[in-house]
């Protein structure tokens, strides 16, 4: 460890994350076409220097300077008297310099028109941005659902990456304001490494093809096992039919959304209870609503395990309300009374403000009885 690293560790300075060098696309193979102009430049400079030394008896430094001035056609003139042979040599040197510069400009324009170097530099910048992300979502395949999902993620300040193999992704990213995106096959291992999947919270696959979704879910679960990740990803998939929903769940998707089923449920709910549906629309889906609803998991080590719900005093401390408890075996208790026991790894359905949710999570994560209980 060098001195700079020790100073950073002592001051708790965070080093900006960088992508693995193996993931960065190579620029050098595309620079091979520039070798010929560089070689010709060196050859012309060498020939010009030797020519002025042999023809007009220039010193080495004067010969190099006179060659550079002549070769670049800047028009500084002669630094010392030149003979007729030297002037003929100078004319040929100017023509050679003009030819080298013309070919270099032509090669540069042709290479830039191909777009390879520009595309590689853009991808390198994007990989550096992605390497800084944590707890983000990887959204695969661009379509109408992707546009709406990313809008909501952006409104809720949740980082995300959009991946699509089609070249139009660059235009779509600009049009729909995707801050991070990749043109690649989502199910490839290299793509998952570039998307910084090891630090992601989850993955959303929204392809209209069930085969794409199946391949992606299988690849993600295999990626988890091969890289020994501490926690599984939360995978969300879309499916058109109910049979596809069951297939994707069996393959490892945590949640499968069926647009057909969701539409039918919302329409039937509006028809049966229009007032309640409007209330839920206002309560759950508006970003500016001060209230929030969330499931909070009680860890195994929490002090609240095997305590009665009223003994936790969550309402008094965090100003939140527990309206449901999901036991570890999946049994759900709605509107639990104060005598209900809080068990290990159960999920509390809590309603309250965002700050209240944060206080509740912090309260349940503590191993020993919180000091706040002394004041309630």
Summarize, please:
The chain is α/β, with parallel strands linked by helices and 376 residues long. Helices cover 51% and strands 14% of the residues. The chain folds into 3 domains: 29-114, Helix Hairpins (Orthogonal Bundle); 133-257, 3-Layer(aba) Sandwich (Rossmann fold); 290-375, Alpha-Beta Plaits (2-Layer Sandwich).
Written description of the protein model:
Helix 2 (35-56) crosses helix 3 (60-71). The protein has 15 helices and twelve strands. It is an alpha/beta fold and 376 residues long. It is elongated. It has helices at 3-11, 35-56, 60-71, 84-114, 116-131, 144-155, 169-176, 189-194, 210-226, 242-251, 259-272, 274-285, 309-312, 314-318, 354-365; strands at 137-140, 160-164, 181-183, 202-205, 234-238, 255-257, 291-297, 307-308, 321-326, 332-334, 341-342, 347-353. The strands form three sheets. Strands 3-2-1-4-5-6 form a six-stranded parallel β-sheet, sandwiched between helices. A four-stranded antiparallel β-sheet has the order 7-12-9-10. Strands 8-11 form a two-stranded antiparallel sheet.
Average pLDDT metric: 84
Largest sheet, in brief, is:
6 strands, parallel
Radius of gyration: 33 Å
**What is the tally of helical segments?**
15
CATH superfamily of the largest domain: NAD(P)-binding Rossmann-like Domain
> In the CATH classification, which architecture of the largest domain applies?
3-Layer(aba) Sandwich
**Beta-strand fraction estimate:** 5-15%
Structural class designation? alpha/beta
Widest beta sheet: strand line-up: 3-2-1-4-5-6
Helical content band: 40-55%
Shape: elongated
Helix and strand element order: HHHHHEHEHEHEHEHEHHEEHHEEEEH
Termini separation (Å)? 50 Å
Low-confidence stretches: none
Question: What is the strand tally?
Answer: 12
Kindly identify the CATH topology of the largest domain.
Rossmann fold
Number of domains: 3
